[in-house]
Every structure is written in C-alpha cells, then in structure tokens.
Amino acid sequence: MSAATLPVPVPAAFGNPEQALPSVGLGLWKIAQGDVGSLIEEAIRVGYRHLDSACDYGNEAEAGIGVEKALAAGHCTRDDLWVTSKLWNTYHAPQHVRPALERTLRDLRLDYLDCYLVHFPIALAYVPFETRYPPGWFFEPNAEKPAMQLAKVPLAETWGAMEELVDAGLVRRIGVCNVGTAQLRDLQAGARIQPAVLQVEMHPLLAQEKLLRFCHEAGIAVTAFSPLGAPSYVPLGMATEGDSLLVHPTVTGISAAVARTPAQVLLRWGVQRGTAVIPKTSRLERLAENIAIEDFSLTAEQMQAISALDEGRRFNDPGVFGEQFFNTFVPIYE
Q1: Does 189 fall in a domain?
Q2: Is 151 exposed, middle or buried (0-12, 13-18, 19+ CB in 10 A)?
Q3: Is the peptide bond between 195 and the residue preceding it cis, with omega within 30 degrees of 0?
Q4: Alpha helix stretches (DSSP H) within the chain
C-alpha cells in the first residue's frame, strides 16, 4: 500500500478496481461559505484530489463553484478528483435518500459522487428542503425548547436506498460514518453492495486500533476525521487548548527529530497506519503544509510512541453534544 492512496472496493459497474482514495484530503467542515470556493480552487491547484463535504456543513453550493472553477482552469480533470459527501440524518427514510443526493449533486455542480456516506447512525424526522436546508439537528429551531425529533428508520432500509444510488450511477461507492464494528458487521451481513469506506474520528488520543484492524481485514477504507485531534473543537467549547496534540512533548519531540511540523507528524502517523486523513484549514498557507507528508516516514519507534498517547478521548460524541447543544440525549457509542 502506498502512502499516497488507499485501495477501496469499486462496484463492478464502474469497471476500475484500481481506483483509489487519496490519503490526504481537504475537510470542508466549519469552512465559511465566503471562503470555501477560493480555498478549494487553491487546494486543487496545489495538488489536492480529495474533498470531503456534507449537506450539514452548509457550504456545498459555494464549494461547487470552487470545484467548477478549478476544473475550468485545467488544474485537474473530474476523473482525477475524489469527492465525498454525506446523507444527513433527516433523510434516512428510503424515499428521501435520492432527493437528498440529487440536491448535493446540484450544489456541488457534479454528475456523480465518488463516495456517499451515511453521516450518523441517527435517523431524524424529515424536514422538507423548502422548510429549511440544511435542516440541522433541531426539528423546530424556533420552538420554546427546541430538540431533535427521532425517527424509526432502520439503517438497513437507508442502506438499501443508498445501494440504488450506485445502481443509478449517481455515486461510485457508499459507506458510513460514526459507527463501530458491531454496526459494520450487521450492515455487511445484509448488504447487497458492501460498505467501501468508513469515516470516523481518529487521532492519537482516539486510535481505535481494533476498528482499524477490522476494516483493513474487511477491505473497508478508513478516513480519519479530526486527524489533528482537539483544534476544531476548542472554539466549540468541546475541547481545551491543553488537549492539543500539536504541543504535546511526544509530538513536538518527533517533529524536531524529523524536521517537520507537529501537524505534519500527526498526519503522517495517520497515513502511515493506513488511513486517509482530511485535515480542515481555512488558511491558504496551511494547504501546502498539510499535503506535504509523502516524502518522509516515521520509524516504528516513533509510530509506537504516538500510538501510546491513546486514551480513548472522543471529542465528537453525540451522546455528549446532543444533550449539551440540542437538548436531546442521543448516544451512539458505549
């Protein structure tokens, strides 16, 4: 396995088993609408070929303009790009899956996605596009005490509708986010089209070794979101500056030894253990830094030292933020 790409299963209808997931991508979560278009143009210009989007991020229409401009400028071709988006919680009922995907395609100005993921294993009551888009977590945001409204939609039913998207040629691969081995095994048992990609929070404080091993043995590519750990969560009050791995002595010591930044060390750790990483940045100068991790390696001892930082620390946990921010207790992890 090269450091540059990760092999992933491709449905037979597309006829190219050599297609691969670029190991470093640009995550679009929390990037402002006014910034995302130009950021994507620059990212593609400097070599990014993997974009990670979602309906819930609220910036797909602006992201689509950036992709369109980058393609028009000749920075790459559509076939060179891997674009992922995600099905939001309010669209889990089978009749809503394809319209949700079609809205994403219109916003991104694309004819197909390389990968479409179920964003959370949490089904919420449907919110029509004309009522609110993206719909967010609250069912009625203006209620006296707004909360989520859960819906009883089995993941297997949602998955069946996702499979139909592959049949229709609208997506090349399908997968899931924010699930563990038990849900993956259950999904695999009934799936006609197997999940190709799992996206989960994964960094040295949450290494998830068993989950990663399971996916590798099952032929499921893993994308690690929040690969730098705490930084994205500090402004949200879900982490503190003291949680940052960027200043951890183990990481800074290895950074000095390999003459790379702490961020590059953390991203290299993720790629070298066989995951794709999707760091988020709104700063143009960070784009080149984050992707420049293919020309050095960490030693086995350095990899082990970083892995030893694991303490099961999860920053993105609906069982915590659901109640804290959305007045609803929705645990998905034990």
Answers
A1: yes
A2: middle
A3: no
A4: 33-46, 60-72, 94-108, 155-167, 181-190, 209-218, 249-258, 262-272, 284-291, 300-307, 318-326
**183, 173 contact by CB (below 8 A):** no
Residue 313 belongs to some domain of the structure: yes
Residue 4 inside a domain? The answer is: no
Number of Cβ within a 10 Å radius of residue 1: 12
pTM value is: 0.95
57 is an active site residue: yes
Pair of tokens at residue 206: 């949450």
Of 222, 232, 231, the residue nearest 251 (C-alpha): 231
Range of the domain at 171: 12-326
Residue-wise pLDDT tens digits, 285-324: 889 999 999 999 999 999 999 999 999 999 999 999 999 9
Neighbours of 34 (CB within 10 A): 9
CA distance 42 to 39: 5
Residue of 57, 126, 133, 233 with catalytic role: 57
Q: How large a percentage of the chain has pLDDT more than 90?
A: 88
Map residue 92 onto helix, strand or coil.
coil
Check: CB of residue 35 under 8 Å from CB of residue 261: no
Q: What's the number of domains the chain is made of? A: 1
334 lies in a domain?
no
